[in-house]
Amino acid sequence: MDLDFTAAEDALRAEARDWLAARVPSVPLPSLETAEGFAAHRQWEGMLFADRWSVVSWPEQFGGRGSSLLEWLIFEEEYYRAGAPGRVSQNGINLLAPTLFEYGTDEQRERVLPSMASGEVVWAQAWSEPEAGSDLASLRSVAVRTEGGWRISGQKTWSSRAAFADRAFGLFRSDPEADRPHRGLTYLMFPLDADGVTVRPIGRLDGKPAFAELFLDDVFVPDEDVIGEPGQGWRVAMSTTGNERGLTLRSPGRFTAAADRLTSLWHSTADPDAGVTALGDRVADAVIGARAYQLFAYAHASRITAGGVIAAGGSIGAESSLNKVFWSELDIALHETALDLLGPYGELSDEATEAPAHGSWAEGHTFSLAGPIYAGTNEIQRDIIAERLLGLPKGRR
Amino acid sequence: MRFLLDGEQREFARTLDGMLGSAGTPGVVRSWASGDHGPGRALWGRLGEAGVFALAVPEEHEGVGPLPVELAVAFGELGRHAVPGPLAETAAAGALLGRLGGDAAHVWLPQLASGKAVASLCVLSPGGSPYALDADAADAVFVVDGDTVRLADSHGPVQPSADPARRPARPLGGVVFAQGPAVTAAAAYAADVAALVTAAQALGLGRALLERTVEYVRQRTQFGVAVGSFQAVKHRLADTLIALEFAQPLVYAAALALAADDPAAGREVAAAKVSACEAAYGAARTALHLHGAVGYTAEPDLSLWIRKARPLRTAWGTPAVCRARVLAGGTLR
Ligand SMILES: Cc1cc2nc3c(=O)[nH]c(=O)nc-3n(C[C@H](O)[C@H](O)[C@H](O)COP(=O)(O)OP(=O)(O)OC[C@H]3O[C@@H](n4cnc5c(N)ncnc54)[C@H](O)[C@@H]3O)c2cc1C
């Protein structure tokens, strides 16, 4: 057992660091939850892609570098340490791509992946419905067989960035007669500007249109856009939820970078004569938490890959629920500690002209509050941990 | 000892609750947040008629106060209905001028007491805020700096807050109209009044959040049952209630201590401020989480309540500042 990096890993880190140092915008891009910011971020994704930094773990033929999971973690550490912009392509890259690697056809992979990696086509996840959140299998939107494909109808909601995205992937009930709700679902892809699609933006807490409702009225989807076998949608979808909860959605780099910012904030705001106060203890705990998550990730990466390409496989399973609960709570603790350190300045929104002088923590805080909800709420994750990892009896659900 | 509100106080709360319940406060909050103060000022006038602001103003200046217990009762209702504006600041300005007396008191207090004028207040001190809340809506912005107090001429740009209905800005300019140890003492008292009523407001806010959430989890079903039937959901709501219930008596005890000019009043207020604001923020986190993604959206009025909780927690004494005050003496009375 060791924590030493190989020469190749160190080289990748150095190359990424130099590239980022030369290109990360010195003035942060506008919020990616606005039309203006979305466009700027899309352009940034194109720059990343041009030098094969947008999807380092993918095979080279799709624009990646074939990097290992550990190399990807290293890249992400550098990415967030450099203060690089958030990724508008993340739902496609983290959720749809692994599904296509596992269940897609060669034709689908060639058609979908490169334009996803370049930011030219941004994907939204259309799983949830107004009445189907935690109980996703109760979804009601339908796919009806037609000549050469399917016609989909129904309502999807809380689809992140769908207000600005180009295409979506989602689950539909294709066999209403199936004996259990999980059966008879089909997983497919569709354009958000197709006939019959209405996208209505929804403001999140701070009013930014961070997600949207989708109204689908008899939208045609050709057979080539069905992922996996019709009727097998649940299995196809569930194979990738581990990615949503686990490392690939929230790499430790994000938290180690935030912990570094928090530590600087502590040093710049703390009274040197007061010693370590209770707030200082919380800063230290956040630093420890970020380091724990990073080390857990190294161990996790060592366990599930032996230098292969993660995107192409590597089942993550129930362990990703451990990640989900840990990172979502760590994220809130980090941001709340920052706001507390800021005292009266902690209430400033990032749009306040005086916010940048204090590190602009508000949007990060708002976003952290959603962490225990999306990607499966923490209650559901704790149930999975208790039942699948601890072997406790299944509760009423 | 009879540590309970009397009939008249309870009736006062009921009256305000009824009045605010039919006043369409969510619309008022949204207007205020967009910079349209008209509906907020109209509501302010009605609160003035109901006697809310007179509670902070001495009788010789057309007030009925200072009556900290009644103020706490009233502010609980203002918080429950998420009323926007420099509420604590106006009450505290009343307390400040009431103690100082002089020309400014003659000019401003009757107007503040009746609700005709809106005031903001900024106490520049270590750990305090450099901003005056809603300076753009206030008729007068008072600034205490050490042992001086001035009436600001203008204010800097509004700094958008995490709660869009709060519009903090730095007060600018103004001529000192009082100076000396009397200012320092009056400002300390005014800050205690502000902290007390902020705590009361937070408690009302927390209770409203809890009520709405209990209602929601009763009717929201997943897996074929109400989500409120899951133990994890029940326990979280039970903990929220416990926190609010145990913060409430601290708020009333602090009000009594202020009413009695007890030397330990500042510490009692600090204890109330920490526990009420932590309980309210906890209630906001719980409300957000148990509403699922619905709780994370701006359209439902719930968001107006959720977003108030965090700034109240740091206004007029951050948790760290309040905790330090609690520790500065022996046990609380
Ligand atoms: C920021 C954000 C982005 C999102 N992005 C997307 C997206 O891109 N695409 C998409 O399809 N969806 C998205 N979602 C939706 C998300 O997947 C759902 O919010 C989530 O599955 C929870 O469903 P719900 O909101 O309906 O909550 P509900 O299922 O109604 O749950 C309400 C409350 O009850 C609790 N609860 C429910 N069941 C149980 C149980 N069995 N035991 C204990 N407690 C329980 C929950 O934990 C929660 O606190 C997003 C949500 C957010 C907040």
UniProtKB/TrEMBL annotation, chain A:
Domain Acyl-CoA oxidase/dehydrogenase middle: 124-219
GO molecular function: flavin adenine dinucleotide binding; oxidoreductase activity, acting on the CH-CH group of donors
Oxidoreductase listed as a keyword: yes
InterPro entries: Acyl-CoA_Oxase/DH_mid-dom (IPR006091), Acyl-CoA_Oxase/DH_mid-dom_sf (IPR046373), AcylCo_DH-like_C (IPR036250), AcylCo_DH/oxidase_C (IPR009075), AcylCoA_DH/ox_N (IPR013786), AcylCoA_DH/ox_N_sf (IPR037069), AcylCoA_DH/oxidase_NM_dom_sf (IPR009100), Mycobact_Acyl-CoA_DH (IPR052161)
Gene3D superfamilies xrefs: Acyl-CoA dehydrogenase/oxidase, N-terminal domain, Butyryl-CoA Dehydrogenase, subunit A, domain 2, Butyryl-CoA Dehydrogenase, subunit A, domain 3
Acyl-CoA dehydrogenase/oxidase N-terminal domain segment(s): 7-120
GO CC, any one term: plasma membrane
Coiled coil: none
Keyword Flavoprotein: yes
Necessary cofactors: FAD
Keywords: FAD, Flavoprotein, Oxidoreductase
Superkingdom of this protein's organism: Bacteria
Domain Acyl-CoA dehydrogenase/oxidase C-terminal: 231-390
Protein family according to the UniProt entry: Belongs to the acyl-CoA dehydrogenase family.
Protein's recorded name: Acyl-CoA dehydrogenase
Species of the source: Streptomyces qaidamensis
Automatic annotation (TrEMBL), chain B:
SUPFAM superfamilies, A to Z: Acyl-CoA dehydrogenase C-terminal domain-like (SSF47203), Acyl-CoA dehydrogenase NM domain-like (SSF56645)
Cofactor(s) needed: FAD
Superkingdom of the organism of origin: Bacteria
Pfam families the UniProt entry points to: Acyl-CoA_dh_1 (PF00441), Acyl-CoA_dh_N (PF02771)
Domain Acyl-CoA dehydrogenase/oxidase C-terminal: 188-326
UniProt keyword annotation of Flavoprotein present: yes
GO molecular-function terms, A-Z: acyl-CoA dehydrogenase activity; flavin adenine dinucleotide binding
InterPro entries in UniProt: AcylCo_DH-like_C (IPR036250), AcylCo_DH/oxidase_C (IPR009075), AcylCoA_DH/ox_N (IPR013786), AcylCoA_DH/ox_N_sf (IPR037069), AcylCoA_DH/oxidase_NM_dom_sf (IPR009100)
Keywords on record: FAD, Flavoprotein, Oxidoreductase
Limits of the Acyl-CoA dehydrogenase/oxidase N-terminal domain: 8-116
Family designation: Belongs to the acyl-CoA dehydrogenase family.
Protein's name according to its UniProt entry: Acyl-CoA dehydrogenase
